[in-house]
């Protein structure tokens, strides 16, 4: 039986074209909400059941079961329970993040200047903002809509998926020094244009530059609104597009929205031999994608003898520090780990709470692969890299190391992951930032300090990190999936062999 299962899974791995599947995933994940929705769909198609945080999990989580839970629809945790799971046992965890640097539409976005319609945007994260100029920009995110049938406000995903906006550069004739240094004001000169006021005048839209609405102090209670209406805050043409896309009866059904901009040019494979992936949001949808596939492939192999739990977590808001209700610095993962260690998963969970020490035992036995992209060596800026640590695109996942603990890798973790990589023949690369360069960080240090779980930082190498258009390696996708799958399937059987 096990041999047939292994043969079936092996065939599945060979028939999946990961680069093409990843490009499809990217083109359908233009916001964190879309990314999580696509991950949910993938898991549902692979037999995972959805759990709700606000409900009891007693009698719902069983051995050999597959589950996922979301928070804010922008973070998701999925896991598979081993056939011999018991509270206090090890949990193999991979972690990533769903967000990327972007421009987010402001709560009051309506702008006009020199007969152009403009959209007010806010910088999210540390983007390379000059890369956003002259790109064809579209809009995606979620919209809160009043549903008359249920008398409730519901959340709907939206992706307008057409070139709507542009942040034009100034002609070189008017800025002869632009090629020496491109400088701009992020508040006043990073404003996208959305159309011409001439067209809106024909439609009767108010085009006063300040867009100030004079409220009547004598409004009745029925007319009173504590916040300006959605039509006052945003261009009506934008709202019309949203209403049409969501098949709403009226623009007034829109209560609010959280919308981000993205490069409307399709994600694609590129290079002479299709060895590259050209796209935005590689940081960090690469790790979301590879963790998702690795876990769904690791749901059958050795699951009967599995004493632990195999778990992947992807969080929102890493690019802005992770301090939110759904970020890695929240209680999302610690709460899920606590709930799992209170569940025997045999249908008798509600009898009595288990000892708190079991959570601590489980954390001490567990391991966390913090997976975020790494810096590939840039051929035009090779001097920016530490001379002996230059990762290459297409040469395998990169283990990230930092003496100042910006990354969590240490020797025991490195030995552990090396053994697994050797078994499945996945090459690994090492990265250390040069002493005269600043070093980024990941969710690794945050969760290691919150949980005490042993952690290693690893990720696939990319170029142009935080640009609107990044470059990754097509071959690296399957290599990381193979490594993560081996980690999920083998960790609980080998964790006691490397003890500190």
Automatic annotation (TrEMBL):
Its EC number is 3.4.11.21. It is an enzyme of class 3 (hydrolase). It catalyses: Release of an N-terminal aspartate or glutamate from a peptide, with a preference for aspartate. Keywords: Aminopeptidase, Hydrolase, Metal-binding, Metalloprotease, Protease, Zinc. GO terms for biological process: proteolysis. GO terms for molecular function: metalloaminopeptidase activity; zinc ion binding. Its cofactor is Zn(2+). InterPro entries: Peptidase_M18, Peptidase_M18_dom2. The keyword Coiled coil does not apply. Transmembrane segments: none annotated. One of its GO terms (cellular component) is fungal-type vacuole lumen. Belongs to the peptidase M18 family. NCBIfam families: PRK02813.1. This is aspartyl aminopeptidase. It comes from Naumovozyma dairenensis (strain ATCC 10597 / BCRC 20456 / CBS 421 / NBRC 0211 / NRRL Y-12639) (Saccharomyces dairenensis).
């Amino acid at each position: 039986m096990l041999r047939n299962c292994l043969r079936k899974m092996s065939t599945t791995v060979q028939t999946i074209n990961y680069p093409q599947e990843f490009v499809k995933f990217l083109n359908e994940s233009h916001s964190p909400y879309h990314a999580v929705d696509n991950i949910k769909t993938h898991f549902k198609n692979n037999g995972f059941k959805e759990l709700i945080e606000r409900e009891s999990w007693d009698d719902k989580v069983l051995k050999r079961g597959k589950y996922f839970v979301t928070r804010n629809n922008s973070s998701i945790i999925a896991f598979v329970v081993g056939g011999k799971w018991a509270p206090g046992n090890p949990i193999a965890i991979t972690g990533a993040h769903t967000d990327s640097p972007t421009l987010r539409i402001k709560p009051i976005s309506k702008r006009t200047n020199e007969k152009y319609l403009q959209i007010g945007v806010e910088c999210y994260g540390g983007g390379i903002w000059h890369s956003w100029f002259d790109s064809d920009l579209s809009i995606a995110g979620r919209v809160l809509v009043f549903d008359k049938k249920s008398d409730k406000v519901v959340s709907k995903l939206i992706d307008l998926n057409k070139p709507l906006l542009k942040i034009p550069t100034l002609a070189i004739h008017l800025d002869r020094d632009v090629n020496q240094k491109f400088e701009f004001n992020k508040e006043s000169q990073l404003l996208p244009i959305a159309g011409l006021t001439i067209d809106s005048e024909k439609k009767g839209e108010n085009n006063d530059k300040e867009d100030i609405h004079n409220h009547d102090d004598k409004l009745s209670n029925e007319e009173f609104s504590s916040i300006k209406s959605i039509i006052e805050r945003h261009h009506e043409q934008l709202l019309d597009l949203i209403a049409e896309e969501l098949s709403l009866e009226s623009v007034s059904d829109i209560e609010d929205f959280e919308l981000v901009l993205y490069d409307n040019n399709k994600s694609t494979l590129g290079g002479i031999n299709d060895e590259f992936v050209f796209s935005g949001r590689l940081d960090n949808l690469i790790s979301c994608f590879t963790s998702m596939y690795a876990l769904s492939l690791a749901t059958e192999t050795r699951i009967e003898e599995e004493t632990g739990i195999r778990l992947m977590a992807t969080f929102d808001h890493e690019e802005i520090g992770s301090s939110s209700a759904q970020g890695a610095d929240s209680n999302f993962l610690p709460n899920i780990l606590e709930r799992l260690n209170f569940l025997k998963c045999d249908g008798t969970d509600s009898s009595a709470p288990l000892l708190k020490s079991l959570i601590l035992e489980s954390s001490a036995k567990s391991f966390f692969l913090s997976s975020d992209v790494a810096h590939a060596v840039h051929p035009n800026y090779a001097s920016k890299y530490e001379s002996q640590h230059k990762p290459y695109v297409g040469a395998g996942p990169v283990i990230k190391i930092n003496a100042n603990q910006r990354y969590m890798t240490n020797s025991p973790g490195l030995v552990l992951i090396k053994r697994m990589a050797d078994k499945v023949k996945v090459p690994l690369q090492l990265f250390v930032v040069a002493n005269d360069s600043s070093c980024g960080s990941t969710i690794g240090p945050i969760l290691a300090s919150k949980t005490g779980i042993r952690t290693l930082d690893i990720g696939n190498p990319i170029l142009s990190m935080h640009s609107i258009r990044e470059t990754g390696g097509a071959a690296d996708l399957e290599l990381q999936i193979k490594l993560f799958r081996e980690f999920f399937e083998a960790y609980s059987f080998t964790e006691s062999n490397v003890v500190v």
